[in-house]
Design brief:
The protein has 50 residues and is mainly α. The protein contains one helix and no strands.
Length: 50
């Protein structure tokens, strides 16, 4: 769920959401995500988390 203040005016009401199925990711995106994740984890290694 992604909500920002600008998406609702004064007195706005948040109601139930609608589930939107995500299309399958191309293999390229999975590979790019894995590379990014590996780099981030590598930078965080040894640093306190949380």
């Amino acid at each position: 769920m992604d909500l920002t203040r600008e998406q609702s005016g004064p007195g706005g009401t948040v109601t139930e959401g609608t589930v939107v199925p995500r299309p399958p990711e191309p293999a390229r995106l999975r590979e790019e995500y894995a590379l990014l994740r590996g780099r981030v984890v590598g930078k965080l290694d040894g640093h306190p988390r949380g």
